[in-house]
């Protein structure tokens, strides 16, 4: 039995071994036939990824170039508008303002090239604060106090559109952009009209001298040389100091006044208007009259009638009453007609603060 069993085992064993060997051989062959060429697939994948990476790099470079161009264009446009506005205020000449604006724009690089502006890129008008406090520009409005400049890097502009570094890869060859800036440079001619009637004797006149000095000192701190004139009145008005940037002459003029007589506010305003008409071109400057009295109008034409005439000539009128005997009601109405404000001072300290406050409202403003 042992021999028979052993023989059968020997017979079966080779068959089993051949079967497993054969089976193993077929499975390996199948695996070899089904396995893809891995090295070639990786090369294709790497190539695709490299192309995507290069596209991303190119796109990032172009985006950075666009942002830099916008920043440089904004800077150049701002500089051009401010230069043009300053020149307009100085020369009262729009052609000179445009010329200066173009020079400053060309001195600024946008994408490594000077910004070239044309005359049509400059707009002139008037800007005034709205109820919200924001300045609103009105093209063609007078007096001209604002220059609005549009800087362009577009196909139709003198500088042309901006060529992108990798436009060939991204499919966008050119970048177009523009920027707008407005500079408001408020120039004012200011005429002070002061009361020199007999009621101003003594401490009132000393307080007035001190208040006017505070006014001129405050104006000296502003960035522009305002032109200021001085008129005074008793029964009749007088033109004491013509419009001048030399504010020391205003201080001298007030100290030199001779007091005495009745009170004619209207004739003082007429004298102030004479000074104003000898000033700078009304198309380019704001005009303001500040009328002060310590009493009541009792001679000459109705001041309200004169106020209407001045307002029609685009002169703003502020009024100041000083002391308990001053006619606040009438002076308040004159300020209302003249589009200005009315102030009242009971004493010299308050009078000084009022003149300081008015001076601060006459400052030059750069906007947008």
Question: Secondary-structure blueprint of this entry?
Answer:
Elements: H1 2-34, H2 38-91, H3 94-106, E1 109-110, E2 113-114, E3 122-129, E4 135-139, E5 146-153, E6 162-163, H4 167-170, E7 174-175, E8 177-184, E9 188-195, H5 203-220, E10 227-233, E11 237-244, H6 248-255, H7 265-277, E12 286-293, H8 303-312, E13 315-322, H9 328-337, E14 339-345, H10 348-360
Parallel strand pairs: 9-10, 9-12, 12-13, 13-14
Antiparallel strand pairs: 1-2, 3-4, 3-5, 5-8, 6-7, 10-11
Helix pairs in contact: 2-3, 5-6, 5-10, 7-8, 8-9
Provide structural commentary.
With 368 residues, the protein is of the alpha/beta class. It folds into two domains: 40-184, no CATH class; 188-360, von Willebrand factor, type A domain (Rossmann fold). It has ten helices and 14 strands. The strands form four sheets. A six-stranded mixed β-sheet has the order 11-10-9-12-13-14, with helices on both faces. Strand 9 (188-195), helix 5 (203-220) and strand 10 form a beta-alpha-beta unit. Helix 8 runs parallel beside helix 9. It is elongated, with a radius of gyration of 42 Å.
